[in-house]
């Protein structure tokens, strides 16, 4: 039974008198309110005071008290049923009295509340949406209710909890036969909409945060020149309304204002109605006999933030996109306008007649993760047309003829009560755009393939794949008319653009057993005719046809002469036959049979030489063979074909020369020279391809093995060969020193001139590289290869910045380049392209936080973790040092001349890295040194986790010179520095030395089994600090004295004695060490847990002044407490040596020596 002929529906519509189909299909639906659930499983149609709930079961009629103004259906469900559908659906009904009532799908009233005394205009719902991009604000669920002059919003979470409780309470009351207890009122926000004459529709965009520019712009527009802005960006909820004067307006209440407006409304009505609901009602309380009129809370004024005024245009409806960035607006002119929600401007305008519109998003029927795109769906009732447009600037992707009295339905929301946890795994497709036809009762869903949203090549390929899928589905149908199959297959094959997909479609069609032969013949002929006109026959049908014609001949199953006679009878041109033959040969993977090659030679010779051919010209026949060989990615097959063709061409040319000249002279022609070059090129390519096909290390990035051909190398420019080998070096993770050793072997092999005889053994990785380098002595010279390896590693590091060793390897490769000109150019390009941006970010970050930043901050600002940042800064120091060294030696060496092998002299393409490096301008050495100093300070601070503001260690001139072009002339700091800055620098360097000594002490105290091997580079830090002191105008003797004291402080006496020899001011050092000696002796005599009797006797014999002095010492300042007495005795002896006899503390040192010797004797 049709849903529109059901007795319940007919009785509700016509008052008990059934009407014919024509009456039912009248345009009465335009006067009804229609709502469709987001899962499209329930539709509600209301008119006047009656509503019908339509579902898969019989429709139900509900009689209501007041006239229905608007409807909304949603599914409040966290849990799903066994069928995957929602548990239940809630119907929200807005009445002319201002009431909003909530019903179940069976018509049971759950909740009713009077929110305003005006008629309800629109009900809109916003549900949880999974954020598709990082940084997108997660929106909360919300129900918004529009009145003529007010907007009421109800939080979705509290509404969901209330409705669930109401449903459970109604079910318990029905089971027990008791009355339903009145639930407590809903908490809501109520806004009084101002500055608009009339409002007919709205949309709730959700929480948004302005950028700094928009905040300042709005403040200047609203507050004028002297307006002030807050330091933090305010969060606000955005509401868009449409109506009259202005046509469209946007309001944005701050969240802080929202909280103030709602707080008073929650407490005033909650507990007055919650006693019976929550179980607090006493038994002796009685219900009031007369119901009082519910109190209506006043609205909080909300002004329009900005609007689009148009006195003649009246907005009628608005529909928000799923991503909350665009909205479609209709007006009384019959137009549809696309609104940019964020910027508040109209992007497009469609001129239609009596248009209603909807929005939707489409996704392909592919496994997750799905790709989504937005489309605008427009329905024009007068014309009866449904159109689909791509957004934002997309064309019309589809148009359909439908009825003139349909309704376009779009929920615009999903299931309620879903959050980030429960939304995982949901496969239910919601937010569908549907078209309801009242004439037939059909509900059609608009589904748009994803590829229609793409453009250019991606769109063409996606469309071709869609057509291929359609053909595959068509071929799987068992009962299919041959004529229909032929017409559909022809249309699909002609519409497919990409040759590879067209070939796949043709093969699928030819492999189908149910297709008639006549059908296949007609389709193939039509396709061949179409392809000949486009010149793409070779890509689609050459190999299948070539294999059919020549395979039997090549393997010896068909006689050669018979095949030739047959081919001649076909009338196919020799050039086409040659193309078919080469396509078969170059696709083979084995050619071991000598007879196999002999047959190929015979076939290639057919039609090769004409009697009128000039020997000093290039033969078009053999040129076609060479073109196919140089384009082939199968180097072995192409080389064998070239050798066979070279032999056949030489025989033909020799016989022709003997016929023409009757001479014993050997024929020399341009053709043979061309073949010699081609064979040599293919030999080189085969060697290179063999090297590139070596399996990379597991887990190494770098992409798939590149295809190699003569044409590709020629088009890759002069650096194409070195670039391919550099990518191979990266995939194999070859260390720079090992690569250097391999290249040295190549040089030794060239000097000894070893014969290149073939050896029947599997070549190692090193042998292959040496062999390739011998074939390309110029293109793979050491400097060129190291330069390309350096660039490849830095490119890969830029992709994976956490892999700091990639950048270290790049710098190591750069160090191995012998030419300072190449070093200078590569270093400058690396700095400008990859380094300076991250380097400046690290400097500003450390300056901001005042210390070595933690991992989270490094990832946010620099794009890598703290460990990778430390490695990066160390590589920056090494790179800038290389740059300075190259600039110093550039005048002593002439620029290198870039050569290329003779057979590869025709290479044309982009300039190589080395060519670009030689074009770089010189640098300003002081500026590079200035940056190197900053990089060293940053690396030092990150290594030892120090507190410092690196940029504050420089004056204004030094700060302004940072991060400028290294070739520019900047005003550098000069003369004596400010004493305050020098003091800060000295304090920083002293902390560096302290940190280094601590690492040495900790490494020495660690167990041998767990001790980390210290790099020899760890010994560089003291000398580095002294060098930095010279550059930063810090007295190096102060640094040496501090280093000696820190080494003694941590018990590293032997190292301290070495550094002590370089100290100039021994008097000051002696005073410092005297205090340290006293701390050691004080710990031994006074602060040990078990004091010995000799120690107590010694204290009694010591002079009172010495005892008092020792008691004043604080041993807790020592880094190492347990120091052998022998070391302390040696320290006191050194003190007596460096202190002069007239020194004020010389006698104290003598007493200390006596005390230490007594203690040492007792031990």
TrEMBL record:
State the similarity comment.
Belongs to the Rab3-GAP regulatory subunit family.
Q: What is the official name of this protein in its record?
A: RAB3 GTPase activating protein subunit 2 (non-catalytic)
Please list the residue ranges annotated as the Rab3-GAP regulatory subunit N-terminal domain.
28-409
Q: Which organism is it from?
A: Oncorhynchus kisutch
Q: Which Pfam families match?
A: RAB3GAP2_C, RAB3GAP2_N
Q: Which residues form the Rab3GAP regulatory subunit C-terminal domain?
A: 577-1140
* InterPro entries (alphabetical): Rab3GAP2 (IPR026059), RAB3GAP2_C (IPR029257), RAB3GAP_N (IPR032839)
For this record, the Gene Ontology CC terms, alphabetical, are: cytoplasm
A molecular function GO annotation = GTPase activator activity
Q: Where in the cell is it found?
A: Cytoplasm
């Amino acid at each position: 039974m049709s849903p529109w002929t059901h007795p319940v529906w007919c009785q509700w519509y016509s008052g008990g008198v059934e009407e014919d189909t024509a009456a039912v299909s009248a345009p009465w639906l335009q006067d009804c309110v229609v709502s469709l659930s987001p899962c499209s499983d329930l539709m509600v149609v209301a008119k006047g005071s009656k509503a019908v709930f339509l579902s898969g079961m019989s429709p139900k009629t509900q009689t209501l008290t007041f006239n229905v103004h608007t409807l909304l259906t949603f599914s409040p469900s966290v849990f799903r049923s066994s069928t995957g559908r929602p548990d239940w659906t809630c119907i929200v009904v807005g009445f002319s009295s201002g009431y909003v009532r909530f019903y179940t799908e069976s018509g049971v009233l759950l909740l009713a509340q009077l929110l305003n005394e005006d008629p309800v205009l629109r009900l809109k719902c916003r549900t949880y949406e999974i954020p598709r991009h990082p940084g997108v604000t997660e929106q909360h669920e919300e129900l918004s209710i529009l009145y003529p002059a007010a907007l009421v919003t109800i939080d979705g979470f509290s509404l969901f909890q209330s409705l669930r409780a109401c449903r459970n309470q109604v079910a318990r009351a029905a089971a027990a036969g008791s009355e339903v207890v009145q639930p407590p009122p809903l908490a809501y926000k109520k806004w009084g909409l101002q500055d608009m004459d009339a409002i007919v529709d709205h949309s709730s965009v959700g929480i948004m945060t302005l950028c700094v520019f928009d905040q300042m712009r709005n403040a200047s527009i609203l507050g004028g020149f002297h307006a002030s802005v807050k330091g933090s960006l305010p969060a606000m909820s955005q509401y868009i309304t449409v109506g009259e004067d202005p046509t469209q307006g946007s309001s944005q209440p701050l969240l802080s204002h929202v909280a103030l407006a709602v707080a008073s409304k929650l407490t005033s009505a909650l507990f007055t109605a919650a006693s019976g609901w929550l179980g607090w009602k006493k038994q002796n309380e009685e219900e009031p006999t007369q119901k009082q009129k519910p109190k209506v809370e006043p609205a909080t004024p909300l002004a329009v933030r900005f609007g689009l005024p148009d006195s003649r245009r009246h907005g009628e409806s608005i529909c928000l996109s799923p991503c909350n960035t665009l909205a479609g607006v209709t007006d009384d002119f019959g137009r549809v306008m696309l609104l940019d929600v964020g910027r508040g401007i109209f992007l497009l305008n469609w001129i239609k007649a009596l248009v209603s519109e909807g929005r939707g998003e489409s996704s392909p029927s592919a496994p997750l993760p799905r790709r989504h795109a937005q489309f605008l769906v427009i329905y024009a009732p007068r014309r009866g047309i449904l159109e689909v447009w791509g957004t934002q600037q997309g064309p019309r992707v589809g148009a359909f003829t439908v009825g003139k009295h349909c309704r376009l339905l779009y929920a615009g929301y999903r299931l309620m009560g879903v959050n980030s946890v429960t939304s995982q795994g949901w496969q239910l497709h919601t937010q569908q755009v549907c078209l309801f036809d009242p004439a037939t009762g059909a509900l059609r869903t608009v589904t748009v393939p994803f590829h229609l949203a793409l453009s250019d090549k991606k769109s063409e390929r996606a469309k071709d794949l869609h057509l291929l899928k359609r053909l595959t589905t068509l071929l799987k149908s068992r009962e299919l008319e041959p004529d229909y199959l032929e017409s559909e297959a022809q249309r699909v094959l002609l519409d497919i653009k990409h040759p590879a997909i067209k070939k796949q479609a043709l093969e699928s069609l030819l492999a189908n057993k149910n297709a008639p032969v006549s059908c296949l013949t007609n389709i193939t002929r039509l396709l061949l005719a179409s392809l000949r006109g486009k010149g793409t026959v070779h890509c689609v049908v050459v190999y299948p046809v070539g294999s059919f014609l020549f395979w039997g001949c090549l393997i010896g199953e068909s006689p050669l002469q018979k095949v030739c006679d047959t081919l001649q009878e076909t009338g196919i041109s020799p050039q086409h036959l040659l193309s078919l033959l080469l396509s078969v040969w170059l696709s083979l993977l084995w050619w071991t049979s000598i007879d196999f090659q002999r047959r190929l030679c015979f076939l290639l010779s057919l039609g090769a030489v004409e009697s009128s051919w000039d020997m000093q010209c290039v033969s078009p026949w053999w040129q076609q063979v060479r073109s196919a060989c140089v384009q082939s990615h199968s180097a072995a097959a192409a080389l064998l074909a070239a050798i066979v063709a070279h032999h056949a061409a030489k025989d033909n040319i020799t016989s022709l020369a003997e016929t023409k000249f009757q001479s014993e002279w050997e024929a020399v022609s341009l053709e043979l020279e061309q073949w010699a070059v081609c064979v040599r090129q293919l030999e080189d390519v085969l060697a290179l391809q063999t090297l590139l096909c070596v399996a990379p290390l597991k887990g190494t990035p770098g992409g798939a093995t590149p295809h190699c051909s003569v044409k590709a190398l020629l088009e890759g420019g002069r650096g194409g060969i070195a670039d391919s080998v550099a990518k191979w070096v990266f995939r194999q993770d070859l260390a720079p020193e090992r690569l250097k050793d391999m290249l040295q072997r190549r040089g030794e092999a060239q000097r000894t001139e070893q014969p290149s005889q073939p050896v029947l053994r599997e070549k190692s990785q090193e042998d292959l590289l040496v062999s390739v380098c011998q074939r390309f002595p110029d293109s793979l010279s050491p400097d060129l290869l190291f330069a390309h390896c350096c660039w490849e590693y830095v490119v890969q590091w830029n992709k994976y910045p956490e892999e700091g060793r990639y950048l270290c390897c790049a710098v190591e490769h750069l160090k191995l380049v012998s030419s300072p000109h190449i070093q200078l150019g590569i270093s400058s390009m690396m700095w400008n392209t990859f380094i300076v941006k991250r380097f400046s970010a690290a400097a500003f970050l450390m300056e901001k936080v005042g210390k070595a930043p933690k991992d989270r901050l490094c990832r946010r600002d620099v794009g890598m973790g703290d460990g990778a940042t430390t490695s990066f800064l160390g590589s920056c120091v090494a790179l800038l040092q290389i740059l300075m060294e190259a600039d110093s030696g550039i005048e002593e060496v002439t620029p290198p001349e870039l050569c290329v092998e003779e057979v590869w002299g025709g290479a044309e393409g982009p300039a190589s890295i080395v060519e670009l490096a030689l074009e770089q301008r010189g640098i300003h050495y002081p500026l590079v040194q200035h940056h190197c100093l900053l990089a060293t300070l940053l690396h030092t601070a990150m290594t030892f986790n120090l507190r410092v503001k690196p940029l504050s260690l420089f004056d204004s001139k030094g700060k302004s010179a940072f991060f400028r072009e290294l070739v520019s002339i900047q005003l550098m700091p000069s003369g004596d520095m400010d004493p305050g800055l020098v003091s800060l620098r000295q304090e920083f360097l002293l902390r560096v030395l302290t940190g280094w000594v601590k690492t040495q002490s900790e490494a020495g105290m660690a167990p041998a089994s767990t001790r980390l091997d210290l790099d020899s580079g760890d010994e560089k830090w003291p000398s580095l600090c002294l060098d930095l002191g010279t550059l930063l105008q810090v007295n190096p003797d102060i640094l040496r004295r501090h280093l000696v004291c820190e080494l003694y402080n941590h018990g590293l006496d032997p190292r301290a004695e070495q550094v002590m020899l370089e100290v100039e001011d021994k008097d000051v050092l002696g005073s410092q060490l005297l205090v340290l000696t006293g701390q050691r002796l004080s710990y031994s005599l006074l602060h040990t847990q078990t004091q010995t009797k000799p120690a107590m006797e010694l204290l009694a014999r010591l002079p009172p002044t010495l005892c008092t002095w020792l008691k004043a010492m604080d041993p807790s300042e020592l880094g190492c407490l347990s120091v052998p007495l022998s070391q302390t005795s040696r320290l006191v002896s050194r003190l007596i040596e460096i202190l002069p006899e007239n020194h004020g503390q010389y006698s104290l040192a003598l007493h200390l020596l006596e005390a230490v010797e007594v203690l040492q004797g007792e031990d």
